[in-house]
Amino acid sequence: xxxxxxxxxxxxxxxxxxxxxxxxxxxxxxxxxxxxxxxxxxxxxxxxxxxxxxxxxxxxxxxxxxxxxxxxxxxxxxxxxxxxxxxxxxxxxxxxxxxxxxxxxxxxxxxxxxxxxxxxx
Length: 121
Fold this sequence. Notes:
The chain is mainly beta. The chain is built from 1 helix and 8 strands. Helix content is 13%, strand content 65%.
């Protein structure tokens, strides 16, 4: 009996120490204030075992998300955008909190932008 309690207690402690994967699957929307004006984005994300895939859509087009990961409440991915005929790598890092993701993105060597995406209803 004592051994079972110890085993259950140990299992519970391990579960509490391992961060749960954030639930990011679904559509997210953001209005990003950039150097060239406000950009309205929709992200369609799918998380599977820590791997993140999906698409990013803005007035500049729609692109596939690459290099995506979800670790606990942290999310990251890359958007490879074709901006006026130029390849532009945009790296995203964010923290999920309920129905929001607080992002910081690096737009090539041009700018760093912070914004919040909210789950689309």
